[in-house]
């Protein structure tokens, strides 16, 4: 029986995801173990992600372990993967995506964003912050970093009235009881990759092993959607710290990709939807639409604001 060493961050969410990959591998006849590490993104909690600077603060250390052969594969939330990845590593599988939308969590079950009351909303994502300012400018966004358990504690301590999170993580961590509102995908369009788990390995990993891991874990429909979303991100050079977003769905054989760029203050929003069949080309076309409508200018302003 083949044994697979899975590298992962050591947050509860990451460990859940790594075990999920492990179970998929077990069903295909593998055994597995987890090698869990704490990354820079997990350790530096006093600054927002966009200010830590380098892209991939959650992924760098695991990439080194892949190169040095300390692990066979690494699992990442697909959302946390930078658009440009090192060429000696590759993504070989994307797990079936669960519901990709964002949710509102609060201790007050009746809390909704569409209220005149001015709420304090915790979020660490520039995309959610910008959407919030765009659609609900009456509220105040407050910085909220740390793993999901830490954030729930902060909510309970009264740091904010509510917080915005990805449904996928909330569901995996059994925190759904605190959801007071499910946000529409068409309104708060999700981040690229949200809801799926990606498997990364060294290009030098044994080809037949790669194929078996892929057969056990990859969900082909999800993969098509993520390739389109990641192609868009690649063209716009977005990382998890910039509010470039994209979400694709598969309808029969055609892909429908919605993507956009938001200014940090939420005042400018450029968003398009395109239909296509080839994921990479679709992402490229949509990026072209966005650029032709002024996306680069918004992105330059955001970068200047984040890294003065
Ligand atoms: N950046 C943190 C992160 N990375 C993946 C998820 C949720 C799970 C997923 O999207 O697959 C989260 C938490 C959040 O954004 O609420």
UniProtKB/TrEMBL annotation:
Write down the InterPro entries for this protein, in alphabetical order. HemC (IPR000860), Porphobilin_deaminase_N (IPR022417), Porphobilinogen_deaminase_C (IPR022418), Porphobilinogen_deaminase_C_sf (IPR036803)
- Gene Ontology terms: cellular component: cytoplasm
Which top EC class is named for this enzyme in its record? Answer: transferase
Q: Name one GO molecular function term.
A: hydroxymethylbilane synthase activity
Q: Which residue ranges does the record assign to the Porphobilinogen deaminase N-terminal domain?
A: 4-202
- Enzyme Commission (EC) number: 2.5.1.61
GO aspect biological process, one term: heme biosynthetic process
Q: Where is the Porphobilinogen deaminase C-terminal domain?
A: 225-291
Pathway per its UniProt entry is: Porphyrin-containing compound metabolism; protoporphyrin-IX biosynthesis; coproporphyrinogen-III from 5-aminolevulinate: step 2/4
Catalytic activity, as annotated:
4 porphobilinogen + H2O = hydroxymethylbilane + 4 NH4(+)
Alphabetized, the UniProt keywords read: Porphyrin biosynthesis, Transferase
The coiled-coil segments of this chain are: none
Q: Which cofactors, if any, are listed as required?
A: dipyrromethane
Q: How does it assemble?
A: Monomer.
Its function, per the record, reads: Tetrapolymerization of the monopyrrole PBG into the hydroxymethylbilane pre-uroporphyrinogen in several discrete steps.
Q: Which family does it belong to?
A: Belongs to the HMBS family.
Q: What is this protein called?
A: Hydroxymethylbilane synthase
């Amino acid at each position: 029986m083949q044994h697979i060493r899975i590298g992962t961050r050591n947050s509860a969410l990451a460990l859940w995801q790594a075990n999920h990959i492990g179970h998929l591998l077990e069903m295909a006849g593998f055994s597995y173990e987890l090698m869990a590490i704490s990354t820079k993104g997990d350790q530096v909690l006093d600054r927002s992600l966009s200010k830590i600077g380098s892209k991939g603060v959650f992924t760098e250390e695991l990439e080194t372990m892949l190169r040095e052969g300390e692990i066979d594969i690494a699992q990442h939330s697909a959302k946390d993967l930078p658009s440009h990845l090192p060429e000696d590593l590759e993504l070989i599988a994307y797990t079936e995506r669960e519901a990709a939308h964002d949710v509102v969590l609060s201790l007050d079950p009746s809390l909704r964003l569409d209220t005149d009351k001015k709420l304090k909303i915790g979020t660490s994502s520039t995309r959610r912050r910008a959407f919030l300012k765009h659609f609900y400018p009456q509220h105040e966004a407050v910085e909220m970093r740390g793993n999901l358990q830490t954030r729930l504690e902060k909510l309970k301590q009264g740091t904010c009235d509510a917080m915005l999170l990805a449904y996928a993580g909330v569901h995996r961590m059994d925190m759904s009881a605190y959801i007071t509102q499910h946000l529409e995908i068409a309104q708060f369009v999700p981040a690229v990759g949200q809801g799926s788990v990606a498997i990364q390995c060294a290009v030098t990993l044994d080809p037949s092993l790669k194929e078996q891991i892929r057969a056990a874990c990859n969900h082909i429909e999800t993969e098509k959607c993520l390739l389109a979303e990641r192609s868009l991100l690649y063209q716009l050079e977005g990382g998890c710290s910039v509010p470039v977003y994209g979400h694709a769905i598969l309808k029969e054989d055609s892909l429908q990709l919605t993507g956009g760029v938001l200014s940090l203050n939420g005042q400018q929003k450029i968003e398009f939807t395109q239909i296509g069949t080839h994921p990479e080309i679709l992402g490229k076309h949509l990026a072209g639409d966005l650029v032709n409508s002024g996306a680069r200018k918004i992105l330059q302003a955001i970068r200047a604001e984040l890294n003065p």
